[in-house]
Write a structure and sequence with these properties.
By secondary structure, the protein is an alpha+beta fold. It contains 10 helices and 6 strands. The chain is rod-shaped and about 185 Å long.
Length: about 375
């Protein structure tokens, strides 16, 4: 819808004060024209001009205002010529009375060009259209230029970083060569260490085998010694008893024989009592005791026996991490004990060895700190 710019002049409106229908015809035709106050290039039936005419005619008929084609053409031409004069596009078009009236009345009211028409209508957007488009293009160009500068800066930084990297590599190259040489030396040392370790492991295995054989021999000798002692005790007992029977006139011999028998029974009872006090189970399974450990325990003083029994109960009930046990893994193999067994504190200066296998704890041996058969670090 085009602006009815003649209506911005009060002088022009005054011309039609007594003929409002004619003014209405001017207004409707103007409003149906395109931007630039044209209808289109084609004319005749079915053309754009014909459609504009028909639309204007239909609008006016609703208001009981007639419109003839010749009047439409005259009014359209007059408005178009007036528009071209206002925008400074005067050409060969012949002025009409209508166009002259529009221009003269607008000038009377101080409107001499299209800018003032728009100002009078309160619409100056078009004046700044080109400026806005130019500003938008300038802003786009500026953005593109900034992006280009950023790319160039990034490339420049990369070049600088590359130069610094090359410099650093050059400075580090001697150091890297030294490191590589040192690595070669370390490899050679590691190879020698591996060979020495293999030899040490072989010797350790031989030593372990020898220790096991010696322990087996010692156990066998201990067994034979125990048998001999038993036979000697038996012979001694029989000898005393036989002497007592042969010499009844010496009742002291019979008393000695009876005391020996009582001591023997008492020793057996005390061993049974001692074994009965030892814990037989723990939370994870059973606890077994080697005969060597039991004999050594039996030979201790009563207070030491009680301390060791208490520590064994701590092991069974509280576990090896109980503070008073001071449990640790052995660094070397101890006598009468397997490799990698554990050592725990039994009394002030007494330690006992034990191991766990398949859920069962086995207590192997006990010794005093300072025992010459035990390395100082294990005492």
């Amino acid at each position: 819808m085009a602006l009815f710019f003649p209506g911005l002049s009060k002088t022009f409106l005054g011309r039609y004060e007594n003929n409002p229908k004619e003014l209405r015809v001017l207004q409707v035709i103007c409003e149906h024209l395109r931007s630039g106050y044209t209808t289109g290039k084609k004319r005749g039936a079915g053309s754009k001009e014909d459609k504009v005419f028909q639309d204007a005619k239909d609008s006016l008929e609703k208001e009981d205002v007639p419109l003839e084609r010749k009047d439409f053409i005259y009014i359209k031409a007059g408005i178009r010529i007036a528009y071209k004069i206002l925008v400074g596009e005067e050409g060969e078009d012949t002025s009409t009375t209508l166009s002259e009236n529009i221009i003269s009345d607008l000038r009377v009211d101080g409107i001499t060009n299209w800018t003032e028409v728009l100002r009078a209508n309160g619409d100056l957007d078009y004046l700044f259209k080109n400026e806005r488009e130019t500003a938008a293009r300038a802003e786009a160009a500026l953005t593109e230029a900034q992006a280009t500068l950023e790319k160039l800066a990034s490339r420049t930084n990369k070049v600088r970083v590359s130069e610094k990297l090359i410099t650093l590599v050059g400075e580090l190259l001697p150091t890297l060569e030294d490191v590589l040489a040192e690595n070669e030396s370390l490899k050679e040392a590691a190879s020698r260490f591996a060979e020495e370790r293999t030899e040490s492991e072989r010797k350790l295995l031989e030593a372990e085998t020898m220790i096991r054989l010696l322990e087996e021999d010692n156990d066998s000798a201990q067994g034979r010694l125990d048998s001999v002692r038993a036979e000697l005790r038996k012979a001694h007992d029989l000898s005393v008893l036989q002497l007592a029977l042969q010499y009844p006139q010496h009742p002291q011999l019979m008393e000695i024989a009876q005391r020996i028998e009582e001591d023997k029974k008492q020793g057996q009872n005390e061993m049974g009592t001692l074994v009965a006090q030892l814990p037989k189970t723990y939370t994870g399974g059973t606890i077994e005791y080697k005969q060597r450990f039991l004999r050594l325990l039996f030979d201790l003083a009563r207070n030491e026996q009680e301390q060791i029994i208490g520590q064994l109960r701590n092991l069974a009930e509280q576990g090896p991490k109980h503070a008073s046990l001071h449990t640790r893994k052995t660094q070397i193999r101890l006598l009468y004990s397997p490799m990698d067994c554990m050592v725990s504190r039994g009394a002030d200066d007494i330690r006992f060895t034990w191991s766990k296998e398949n859920g069962a704890i086995t207590v192997h041996w006990l010794y005093r700190k300072g025992d010459s058969r035990v390395r100082q670090s294990e005492a």
